[in-house]
Amino acid sequence: MIKRLCYDFNQTIMSARILNLPKVNLLERKYIPSRIACFALSALLILYLIPRPDLIAPLIIAGSLTVLLIIQFFYQNPIMNILLGSAMALIGAYFCLAVIDEFLEFETVTQEAWRLLLFGLGLFLSVIFLSVLMIRRAILD
Predict the structure, then answer these.
(1) What DSSP designation does 27 have?
(2) CB 116 within 8 A of CB 99
(3) What is the pTM of this model?
(4) In sequence order, which residues have a C-beta less than 8 Å from that of residue 74 and are 6 or more positions away?
(5) Which end of the chain, N or C, is more open, meaning fewer C-beta atoms within 10 Å of its C-beta?
(6) Taking a C-beta distance cutoff of 8 angstroms, is the pair 87, 127 a contact?
(7) pLDDT by residue (tens digit) across 59-96?
(8) Are 130 and 41 in contact (CB under 8 A)?
(9) What do you get for the CA distance between the two ends of the chain, in Å?
(10) What is the chain's alpha carbon radius of gyration, rounded to the nearest angstrom?
(11) pLDDT digits (tens, 9 = 90+) for 11-58
(12) Quick one: CA dihedral 73, 124, 85, 67, positive or negative?
């Protein structure tokens, strides 16, 4: 009798959905670039918010962007993927130009200058590559 009550309780309570949201597979291959981008940008925005508790406007903007990115991380809206990918591609291109400018400011080309150039370009070209994958996946779906 008690076993039956526990079984009924588990069937009714544990299977009840509080919010009617679809199940999310976090390791679905086609959304991995988008999830990496959302996670990285959310982490950067959260790190941006930590030392600035006194500024209200940046707090609201960065906080709302963080919430949108976290929602995008789980539910993968295709239009948001296109916008996020485009923004990442533009940011990556801007920082590639910034790395090249920093490289050209060295008076003599040293090992540190080459390290800056290779690491910076590698990082930001990989950001551009991920953003192109995001846009491509969003358009094809």
Answers:
(1) T
(2) yes
(3) 0.63
(4) 24, 26
(5) N
(6) no
(7) 777 777 777 777 777 777 888 888 888 888 888 898 89
(8) no
(9) 51
(10) 22
(11) 544 444 445 556 666 777 777 777 787 777 777 777 766 776 677 776
(12) positive
Q: In a 3-state reduction of DSSP, which class is residue 21?
A: coil
Q: What is the DSSP string of 44-73?
A: HHHHHHTT-SS-HHHHHHHHHHHHHHHHHH
3-state SS record for the chain: CHHHHHHHHHHHHHCCCCCCCCCCCCCCHHHHHHHHHHHHHHHHHHHHHCCCCCCHHHHHHHHHHHHHHHHHHHHCCHHHHHHHHHHHHHHHHHHHHHHHHHHHCCCCCCHHHHHHHHHHHHHHHHHHHHHHHHHHHHHHC
The residue type found at 13 is I
- Given CA atoms 129, 133, 134, 138 in this order, what sign does their dihedral have? positive
* Alpha carbons 102 and 112: distance in angstroms, whole number: 11
Tokens for 88? 């990442």
Q: Around 62, how many Cα atoms within 13 Å sit in the side-chain half-sphere?
A: 18
How many CB atoms lie under 10 A from the CB of residue 37?
Answer: 23
Distance of CA 11 to the CA centre of its chain: 37
